[in-house]
Amino acid sequence: MFVAVQLVRSYHRYAHPAGAVIVLAAMAVWTVFVCAVQPGLPVFARGERWRPGGRAVVLAVADLAVAITAVMLTELVDTHARITTGAPTLPGSWASGAVLGAAVVGGARLGFPAAILLSAALVIERKEFAATTMSSVTLLILAGLVVGYLATTALEAEREVARVREFEAARAERDRLARAIHDGALQALALIARESTTMDRAAIADLAAQQEVALRSHISAIVLNADVQPSGDVDVRRLLSDLDTVWPHRQVSLAMPAEPVPLPRHDAAELTAAVRAALDNVDRHAGAAAKVWVLVEDEASAVVVTVRDDGVGMSPDRAGQARAAGRLGLATSVIGRVRALGGEATVTSTPGSGVEVELRVPRR
To answer: Does residue 87 lie in a domain region?
Structure first.
C-alpha cells in the first residue's frame, strides 16, 4: 500500500509512468501468490537439529529474486536525476520483505546472504555508495542477521517444548499404568499373601485369571491407543455409595450431600479409585479396630472428598519410606491420581492420631 501511494504521488516524475504501474501490478500479484502459497509450506523440518524446509527455501529464494528484479527495474522507469539524488527505488520497503522472509525460513544462514544480494542490487541501481544507500544496506544486513537468529531460536525452543510435552505425556501414561497395576495385580497378590492359608485353590485361580484379563486390557489399550474415556457427567455419590458394603469388616461412615455431585465420567471414576485406594491403605495400616469416615463436599468449582480414620496414624516421613521401598499405594494410587486430574491431595497425620486424606478435584 505504501509503495502504491508513493507511486501515485510521484507519478509524473517517472520517465515511464506506465512501466512503473506495470511493475507495481506485478509486485501485487506476486504478493498475493506468496500469501496464498506460504501457509501450506513447512517453515522447518523437525529432526535432531533444526533445518529449513526445502519448499519454503525455494519460495524464499524466488521472492528474493523478484525483489532484486523490481529494484533493478527502477533504472528503466525512473529518471537518472531522481536516482542520483537518492529517490526511493520502485519497490521501496517492499523489497526488504524478501530478506525478512529468508531470515524466518532459513535463519541467519539464509537471511544474511539475502541481505547482501539485495544490498548489492541497491548499490548497482544507485551507481554509488551514498549515505542513504549505506543506511539501507546496514538495516538490511541487521534484519537478516537479527531476525534470522530470533527465528532459529524460536523454532528450536518450540521443538524443545514439544519434547517436554511428549515426555510429560509419557510419564503421565506410565503413572496411570502403575496405578492400574497397583490397584489390580498388586492388590490381588497382597490379598493372596495375607489369606493364602484360608483361600482355596479355586478362589486363588479365579482371582489370578481376573487380574490377567485386566492387565491384558491395559496393555492392549496402550498398544492400540484405544484408551478413550467416555464423555458426560456422572454423580459421584452413586460411585461412592457402596463403600460400606465393600469393606463390611470395617465400620465406614459415609456422609454425602442430598443433591447430585456431578463430575465428568473419567474424573469421577479416578476420584472414586483414589478414595478406594485410600481405604485400602486404612485397611492395611490403620489397625483392625480403626473406624473410617468419608465426607463428600460439593463446592462451586471443585468436589472435595475427605477420608479420615482413627487408627495408629503414621510418621511424616512414612510416604517417602514407602516410595523408597517400592510401595506406591499412597503416592501413586491416591496423590498421583488426583494430581493427574489437576487437583490437590493433602495427607495429614501424626503417630497415634489417625490419618486424614483430603482429595480436591476441580471441575474442568
So the answer is: yes
Residues of the chain with pLDDT under 70: 1-3, 6-9, 11-12, 38-54, 80-87, 128-130, 169-170, 172-199, 203-204, 206-231, 244-250, 315-329
Q: Which residues pair with 44 in a beta bridge?
A: 52
CA 134 to chain centre: 45
Distance of alpha carbon 343 from alpha carbon 299, whole angstroms: 13
Range of the domain at 37: 2-161
User: How far is it, in rounded angstroms, from Cα 94 to Cα 89?
Assistant: 10
Residue ending a domain, among 121, 140, 161, is: 161
Calculate the CA 212 to chain-centre distance: 34
- Residue 349 neighbours by CB under 8 Å, 6+ apart: 313, 314, 316, 318, 355, 356
Please give the Cα distance from 35 to 302 (Å, whole number): 47
Same domain, 145 and 34: yes
Nearest of 222, 182, 187, 180 to residue 208 by alpha carbon? 187
Query: CATH number for the domain including 249?
Result: 3.30.565.10
Same domain, 112 and 243: no
Domain boundary among 161, 180, 210: 161
Number of domains the chain is built from: 2
Please tell me the pTM assigned to this model.
0.43
Extract the runs of DSSP E, i.e. beta strands, from 128-273.
233-235, 252-255, 262-264
Q: Which residue has the cell 519410606?
A: 321
- 23 belongs to a structural domain: yes
DSSP 146: H
Identify whether 182 is part of a domain: no
| Continuous segment of H or E residues that includes residue 361 | strand 355-362
Looking at residue 255, its pLDDT comes to 92
User: What is the maximum alpha-carbon separation in the chain?
Assistant: 109
Residue at 125: amino acid letter: E
Give CA torsion, residues 44, 47, 51, 57, to 10 deg. Answer: -40
Q: What is the DSSP string of 96-128?
A: HHHHHHHHHHHTHHHHHHHHHHHHHHHHHHHTS
Q: Are 206 and 238 in contact (CB under 8 A)?
A: no
